[in-house]
Write a structure and sequence with these properties.
Strand content: under 5%
Oligomer: single chain
Helix content: over 70%
Number of strands: 2
Number of helices: 20
Length: 499
C-alpha cells in the first residue's frame, strides 16, 4: 500500500514538474476554450471578439515560447522533448498561424454567410496544439494523437464554408483519404509496439526491439507508419488529395494547408529519421533510401504535372508537392547535423507560400476567378502586386537574389558534401533531379508575369470593389520584401538558427 501511495505521489510530482514545459500548448488550449465561449456569447455584441481572443492567444503563446529559448528538458515521462529543434519549429508554426488567422479574418469578412467565423478560429487553435506537439515529441502515441488533431482540424477548415459541389467534394475526398491513411498508420504503430513494447522511437529499448523483430514485418510496419506521415506531407504517392483540396478550399485555408501543417510533419519525420539512421537497425539504411527515392519521385511528379495547370491554385498544389521533395532533401541535411539549413528552408518556404496565396486571394476577390487567363493584362492595373508576385515566383524557382536561391543552394551544398564523403549514386541522382526540377519550375512560375504583363490589354475597374483584401495585400508585399532581404542577407536568419 505504501509503495502504491509513493508511486502515485511521485507520478503527480512528475506531472506538476512537466507542466511548465507544456505552457505554450496550455495557452493555446485555454485560448481554444475562450474562443468557443466568445463565439457563443460575445460575437453577437462585438463581431471581432473571437478573432481578438485568438490573436491574443497566439501572441501570448509566442511570448511564453521565448522563455524556452535555451531550455533542454523532457516531460510527461518522455512524451515531450523540449530542445532547439522544438523551439524554432514552434516559433515558425505560431508565426504561420498568426498570418493564417489574419488571412481568414480578412477573407471571410467579404463573404455573406450564416456560419460563424469564430468556429474557424477555434479550430485553427486546435490545429496549432496538434502541430506544436508534433515538433516536441519522440513518442508514437503523442505523435499519432497530434496528427489526428491536425487532420480533423484541417477537414473542418476545408469543409466548413463549402459553397458548391466542387468544394464539398474536395472536403469529402480529403476526409476519406485522410481517414484511410490514419487507419493504416495506426495499424503500423500497433505492429511496432508489439515488436518493441516501447513507444519512444528515440529510446535504445525501442531500437533493440526493432532489431530483434522479423525484418520483413518491421519493414511492413514502418511502411504503414510512413503512410500517415506521407499524407500530411503530401509526398508521392500520398499526394492524391492535394490538387482537388487546394483548388476547392477557400484560398486562406489553402494557404494554411500548404505551409503550417507541413512544418510539424517535417520535424516529426526528421526526428524519426535521425533516431533511426544513427543506429545499427537494418531499416536505418532503408529509411535513407526511402527518403531519397520519395524525394526524387515527388520533385519530378509535382513539377512536371504543374506545367499543365492553368488554375493557379491547382498549379500551386503541384508546386507544393514538388517543394515537399526539397524539404525531404533538407531532412537529409538535418540528419547530418545541419539543422540550420532545414529551419532556414522551412521559414522561407512558409513566407513564399503565404505571400503567393495572399496575392492569389486579392486577385480572386478582384476578378472572381483563379484561372490564369483572368489575370491577362492586369499587370498594368496592379503593377506593384504582380511585380512582387513575380519576385516570389523567382524565389520559389530558386533564382538569385532571393531567399529561395539561398535555401536551395544550402540544401544542394549539404547533399553534395554528403555525396563527397559517401559517393552513393542515389545522392548524385537526387542532386541532378533537384537541379532539373528547379529549371522545370521556371516554365510554370513565369506564366504569372507572362499573363499579367504580356498577354491581353485588359484593365480592371476598381470602383465599387471590396477593399477587404488590403491587409493581405500589405502582408504579401511585406513578405515579398522579406524574401529579397533574406536573399541578400541570409546570415540574419542563419546565424540565429545555427546558435
Amino acid at each position: 500500500m505504501n509503495d502504491f501511495v509513493y508511486h502515485i505521489t511521485d507520478s503527480i510530482d512528475h506531472i506538476i514538474r512537466s507542466i511548465p514545459l507544456f505552457k505554450v500548448e496550455l495557452a493555446l488550449a485555454i485560448g481554444f476554450i475562450l474562443t468557443i465561449a466568445c463565439t457563443l456569447f460575445f460575437d453577437r455584441f462585438w463581431k471581432h471578439a473571437s478573432f481578438s481572443i485568438t490573436l491574443l492567444t497566439l501572441l501570448a503563446s509566442i511570448v511564453m515560447l521565448f522563455s524556452q529559448y535555451n531550455l533542454a528538458d523532457n516531460g510527461f515521462y518522455g512524451m515531450l522533448t523540449i530542445d532547439r529543434t522544438g523551439y524554432f519549429s514552434r516559433l515558425l508554426i505560431l508565426f504561420g498561424l498568426v498570418i493564417s488567422l489574419l488571412f481568414l479574418q480578412q477573407h471571410f469578412q467579404a463573404i455573406q454567410s450564416t456560419k460563424r467565423r469564430g468556429d474557424l478560429f477555434s479550430v485553427l487553435l486546435a490545429a496549432g496544439i496538434g502541430m506544436n506537439l508534433l515538433t516536441i515529441t519522440n513518442h508514437w502515441l503523442m505523435a499519432f494523437l497530434a496528427i489526428e488533431m491536425v487532420s480533423i482540424s484541417s477537414y473542418i477548415l476545408v469543409g466548413y464554408f463549402s459553397a458548391n459541389k466542387r468544394q464539398a467534394e474536395a472536403a469529402m475526398k480529403y476526409a476519406l483519404f485522410g481517414s484511410a491513411c490514419s487507419a493504416v498508420m495506426l495499424y503500423g504503430l500497433s505492429l511496432v509496439y508489439g515488436f518493441t513494447g516501447d513507444l519512444n522511437f528515440a529510446s535504445a529499448r525501442h531500437i533493440q526491439g526493432l532489431i530483434a523483430a522479423p525484418e520483413v514485418m518491421t519493414s511492413i510496419a514502418f511502411l504503414f507508419v510512413f503512410v500517415g506521415i506521407g499524407f500530411k506531407l503530401s509526398f508521392v504517392p500520398f499526394h492524391l488529395w492535394a490538387p482537388d483540396v487546394y483548388e476547392g478550399a477557400p484560398t486562406p485555408v489553402t494557404a494554411f494547408l500548404s505551409t503550417v501543417p507541413k512544418i510539424g510533419a517535417i520535424i516529426l519525420f526528421a526526428r524519426l529519421a535521425k533516431s533511426m539512421v544513427s543506429t545499427q537497425f537494418f531499416f536505418s539504411e532503408l529509411t535513407l533510401l526511402f527518403i531519397i527515392v520519395v524525394a526524387i519521385a515527388t520533385m519530378l511528379f509535382g513539377n512536371l504535372i504543374a506545367l499543365r495547370q492553368l488554375d493557379i491554385k491547382r498549379m500551386m498544389a503541384y508546386s507544393s508537392i514538388g517543394h515537399t521533395g526539397f524539404l525531404l532533401m533538407a531532412i537529409i541535411a538535418y540528419i547530418n547535423g545541419n539543422q540550420d539549413i532545414l529551419f532556414f528552408y522551412l521559414f522561407i518556404y512558409t513566407i513564399m507560400n503565404l505571400a503567393t496565396f495572399a496575392f492569389i486571394d486579392v486577385l480572386e476577390q478582384r476578378t472572381g476567378s483563379t484561372h490564369l487567363s483572368q489575370f491577362a493584362g492586369l499587370g498594368k492595373t496592379f503593377p506593384l502586386l504582380f511585380t512582387c508576385f513575380s519576385i516570389v515566383g523567382i524565389s520559389l524557382i530558386g533564382l538569385p537574389p532571393t531567399a529561395g536561391f539561398v535555401g536551395k543552394l544550402l540544401v544542394f551544398t549539404s547533399i553534395f558534401e554528403l555525396y563527397q564523403n559517401t559517393p552513393d549514386p542515389l545522392l548524385l541522382a537526387l542532386l541532378v533531379v533537384g537541379a532539373l526540377t528547379s529549371v522545370i519550375s521556371l516554365f510554370y512560375y513565369f506564366k504569372i508575369p507572362l499573363y499579367a504583363f504580356l498577354r491581353g490589354n485588359r484593365t480592371e475597374d476598381n470602383s465599387g470593389k471590396s477593399q477587404s483584401g488590403l491587409l493581405m495585400y500589405g502582408i504579401g508585399l511585406l513578405l515579398s520584401v522579406l524574401v529579397l532581404l533574406l536573399g541578400i542577407f541570409p546570415s540574419l536568419l542563419m546565424d540565429w538558427f545555427a546558435k
